[in-house]
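worker-03 picked up job from queue 'complexes'. Input manifest follows; two sequence lines, order preserved.
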Amino acid sequence: MTGNDQTQNRRPVLELRGVRKAFGGAQALAGVDFTLLPGEVHAVVGMNGAGKSTLVELVCGSFAPDEGKIVIDGTARHSLTPRRAHAAGVSIVHQKRTLVAGLTVAENILLGRLPTRAGRVVWGRVRREAADALAGLGIDVDPGTRAGDLGPAEQTLVEIAREVHAGGRVLVLDEPTASLGGDDALRIHTLVRTLRDRGTAIIYISHHLDEVLDLADRITVLRDGREVATVSPADVDLPALVRAMVGDRLVHERVERVRSAGEKVLEIAALTSGRLTGFDLTVRAGEIVAVLGPAGDGQTELFRVLSGLRRPQTGRLTLHGEEIATGRAGAVLGAGLRCVTGDRLTFGLVPGLTVNENLDLVRRGRHRPWLVRWRRLHAEGRRSRARYGVTTLHEDPAVVTLSGGNQQKVLLAAWLADDPVACLLEEPTNGVDVAAKADIHRLVDGLADRGAAVLLSSSDVDEVVRLADRVVVVRAGRVVADLPMDLTTRDDLITLTAGGDHR
Amino acid sequence: MTTTALRARPGVGLPPGVSRHVGLLAVLLALSAVTALNSDVFLTGANLINVSQQIAVVAVLAAGLTLLMTAGGIDFSLGAIAAVTHGVTAQLIVAGVGQWTAVALALALGAAIGLVNGLAVTLLKVVPFVATLATSTILGGVALLVIDGKSISIGDNLMALGFGELAGTVPALVVVAVAVCVAAGLVLRWTAFGRNAFAIGGNENAARLAGIPVVRTKLLLYTLGGLLAGLGGVMLVARLGAASPGTGGLHLELTVVAAVVIGGTALHGGSGTLVGTVLGVLLLGVVTNALNLLQINAHFQDVAVGSVLLVAAITNHLRGSTH
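worker-03 finished. Artifact:
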């Protein structure tokens, strides 16, 4: 559709030249060149932390680069703000949907620009303009529908229509298909192609590499803040793309363990809830099983059900053959299962309370004493902090004042203190620096060594490789593959999480 | 005073209830000093006893509300519960029920109404603000129905509570209020129930996942709030010697909420101290008394109380955002 000759003749609508950006000590972008042509779908891929988000934020004016230039329509923009970027026709559709749920599709499309006459909204024109905008892009959505009643794919379609209607010529789509199923994703792809044919320039961010190979005209691979390749999909295949993303970076050495899986401990049978449908899984004593999946929704649901936050539609949960009552956090804890959230400030810690009191929370929830014995609580807190390597400036500050890594250690210490029978660890090293990460990995190893059945829900492939004995791949809410880690390579896992098929 | 100020670093030396409230204490003392300089009556025993009796009821209701708000709850019906129970106590006594039996029944009624509020909030998941505003309105009507809109004298019943004195000086009402506040303060600091209130108010999801009985704790808190409001109603009728229209109700409620907020308890839960609440109650009592003694137009009182509340809310917000 877009021949290469044509590509070279067109003038770029957007260019980044030698752009660098650091946050604190971390170099998020270390000199990136990037060009975007009109009528082009330019995919940007990379691992977590490769610099994709930073690149997008710079283009949209959220912050300025430390060095380098952002050129829009041949003019270097030195003080780009989100408003100026928008005025220049650069629009972003975030992964998190932003329609106003209570308003109609038509109002959303014309939000902030409703046509008025003598101060009153001309509703006839609102409907007409919105209907034209949708029809012009081939989007089959009734402009009179309440936005909140739309499905996720339709919401994304309407958001894209809104940005195009507002004059967006450079469109950044940040993982538009991240939580969508196959058919819904295809509707997005169709719209992206329509926009490309109309001359819109599109930056397409996605973790789904098969989709990128199918849809993009060019693919830029970022790794550690650098542009490592910009290629045409015709010249590259999935494994090559994965290699470019991963590089020859030193893989964390897996600690050779002597432990072998024991008896069955945690059994999940025919679990149906939310995105999970007929989910089966068994974890044995001393075994670390990782749950991997493309979208992540299945993992979230698993946490909700196992922790007792939500009662599943169907399914049984057993620990050592004993059924656990679902939907009750107390029953789960009493049985010896600990579910440690990946979102510590929402589901794990009480931010305003002190470290020591947070460390006592789960114990108190389980034993339900009448009185609080502060002296013992502080003594236990000190011991626990020493054991888990929590460092604080003051004796016992509010947990919210700690760094992310220390908060995470407090979380793990509070929930895993009394050597649980089984546990679910959700993103155990979320937002944690390298040193804390290593500490936490040793800690998880220790849990399994002492015989706990560990279920690991992590989107960090390196972490899975480092920790897991077995990997379970979830797709569309079901287990589609169950692989022993010693027969699985890192590239296999990346391919699997990226939505490709296991070879 | 200077040593207090010097030691008032966060988390050093003083218990958390005191060091946080040095500013409030200073305002209270300054206001008292100014009033004393301008009025010969302020520091007389009779006036101080008068003030303390007036604020005793507010303190009892505020103690219950402090616990509840620490857990992220709110109850706008406490004043109305007091109004209903003060009427019910009077009617029971008039009907020939023994005075202490009447008190027990009034307390039970208060607790029952609190439990209903709690059930609406926890099981039916009505927003606390709406649920208790509704019960407050209902009970406001019920309070008038109970006494048929008339004043009902209880004769010399409940004299021991209304006019009794400990050691010949301290009014019985004040003894009750102090006992309630001390007990509530100890509960908040030393019992698992009290600490669970902090955890629930600070992060309800985390508390639930940690196995803390969230629903049970909340039910108990609303019930306790109702019970203490019932006690407040009994104290009202004991002090006035009669139940009458307009006693308790919304005005009392707003004073109680103001006192708790001035005392630094967060409306969204997760923090609160009884020391702060008591200081808030004292401050409002002194402000009202000072305006009376200095013969300032009575209509100005609401303006003053509202202003104090606003200043306190802003101060608390600023202090909170500097953390």
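worker-03 released lock.
The CA atoms of residues 392 and 402 of chain A lie 7 Å apart.
The radius of gyration of chain A is 25 Å.
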